[in-house]
Each structure stands twice: as C-alpha cells, then as structure tokens.
Amino acid sequence: MSNKPLPILPGQTLGILGGGQLGRMFVTAARTLGYRIAVLDPDPDSPAGRIADLHIRADYTDAAALAQLAACCAAVTTEFENVPAASLIALATRCRVAPGADAVAIVQDRAREKSWLAGHGFATAPFALIEDATQVDAALATTGAPAVLKVARLGYDGKGQARVDSREDARAAFHAFGGVACVLEGWVRLEREVSVVLARNDSGECACFPAAENRHTNGILDVSRVPARLSPELARAAETQTRAIADALAYVGVMAVEFFVADGRLLVNEIAPRPHNSGHYTLDACLTDQFEQQVRALCGLPLGATRLLSPVAMVNLLGERWQHGEPAWGKLFAQPNVKLHLYGKTAARPGRKMGHFNVLDADVEAAQQLAESLRDAL
Length: 378
Fold this sequence. Notes:
The protein has 378 residues and is an alpha+beta fold.
C-alpha cells in the first residue's frame, strides 16, 4: 500500500469503484470538502461519472484502468460489494484502499458471510449452505420450512431469492438459479427489520448512526423511519453488535448491518461494506451524513458527529413512479419539511432506484404518515 501519510487533505484526488447513486453521493460529499474525484465505471452514463473530475470507462478488472486510477488517486474506495476482490488487492499495492479486500471478500459472498458470522458468535436465522443439488434436502431438514433460498453471490434487492415451502420447491428454486452455490435460511417470526450504519477509522474509532427501522416491498427498501421502534436495550445491542462486527473485520470505512428483530432479540441478516440505502436519512437529519463520513474514514480524518437533528422518514423512489411520465414533484415541494434527492439516472425501469425523499418532523409518526401519503400521491 502507498505510504502517503494520513490525513489525506482537500485538494488531493480520491477514487471510487462504481458510478451509481451511492458513488454520486460520495462524489458530492467529497467535492464539497474540496477533493477531486475519479470514478471507475464501465457505464458511459453513470450518475457518479457524470459529475466526477475524471470518469474512467472500463471494466473493474481492467488492469490498465486500475493502474490509471491508482496513479492519480491518493486513496480509493468502493460503492458496491461485488467489486472483484482481486481489483482491490491490485489497487492496494499502489495507493490506499478502504475498505480492504479481506473484509469485502467475506461479505460479498452470502455463504462465507453467514459462516463468518456464526464462527464469530453472532446470532442469525437458521441457515444451511448448498453447493450442489445433493445437499438441498439436508439443508431443508436443517432450516425447516418455510425457508428462503438465496444465491451466495450477486443477489441484491430481492433478486436471486425464492421462498420455498417444500423439498420440491427447494429443488426447483435451486435448479432455477442455475445450480450455483446458495444459502438456505429458515423463516423467522419477524417483528421488524432494522439497520445500523457505522463508520470506523484506522485506529478503531467507531461512530454509529441511529438505528433505522425499515420496511421492504418485493425485496426492495420502501420506507425507513428514525428513530426505530426499539427498546433502549435493543437499540444499544444493535449498535454494540455492529461495532463488534466492524472490529472483527478490521473494517475501515462506512458499513451497514441489517438485523431481524424476532422474538425480542436481534438476528444479523446481512452486512453491507458501503453506505446503505437505509442511511440516506442522514443526508438531511444528522449532523454528519454517511457519505461525508465515508470521505472522512477514507482520508484518515476525524469522524464526524452522528447526532440525529430531527426524527425522519425516508421513502425510496423506484422507476415505477415514472410509468405515466414525470412524477408530480410539486406535491413534494409544497411541503417545507420534505427534501428530495434525485440520482441523475436517465432511464426509469421498474425496481430501479431513481431517488429518495426525506420527511423531517418533530414527531416520527407524523413524518412517516406524511412520507407515505406523498409517496402514494406521486
């Protein structure tokens, strides 16, 4: 790794692998702080690439592109977990990379992630690993039915997942996924889903954002509310477990941990080695947002305060909202406590994240009610 001293101060160039909406919000935060930005993304129309100082249009495994990125950047991060670990390793020989390849390699593979969590004593839903068709029946015997079959790699936002209620369902789903490695997870009596976004620096200092309570539709986050409906004890436990996971991974950067709340206890669902959709509320409701925090951790700066300034509800805006033309933005702008964030994507498709809005109110119930009514009005 480059021996460039920390902190890396404004005026230098930072790099990011991935040019989607998370990358775009990182670029905005970094440029606000005075950094130049280089984006590596093969999409010529990527949201982050369009506003970066340099957009390298190449595959994430392109050796020449990686060398170009490393040569111009003091430090490089990533906006998504499926970036090839080998690319992070190659970059790390020439510049600072955070998070590191070891941590990303664990969490980008569900099978490896679940095994790692269990091996480190973190509670999860019952699960079994499936590498070939002969293991399907035994896996279902371990988890019981109903269960959820998930591909180990490259699944997100509900893709690569199927509910199974019998051996026949499990076999059919495994076959439909192409016989790739999968994780079978047992069904739990879900009370709610929550997530904690955290930043951790090189010295092990951590800063947690308040837990968000999340509701999903068709596997995609629909609404988050903060504060979450958690007892003080469970809220502290969620933060403690998130810190413990970050410490065990020796993680540097921003990460999120998703939890199920079932039978009054926390079960770890997934780890995301990047800023998280459920953390978008921080853009308007916290003293420091998750993307500024990503810049700070990457550059070795002191972490910012994560204090919640107002209760908030966040709504995802998916491509379906555009099926009859541009949404009725005037209904949002008519509300003085609503903040709209659009991601600069040119093509709206069903299920594609096009933007989000935050509703701030002293009463979180009122914030959520207004957020949902505005969502429906669009």
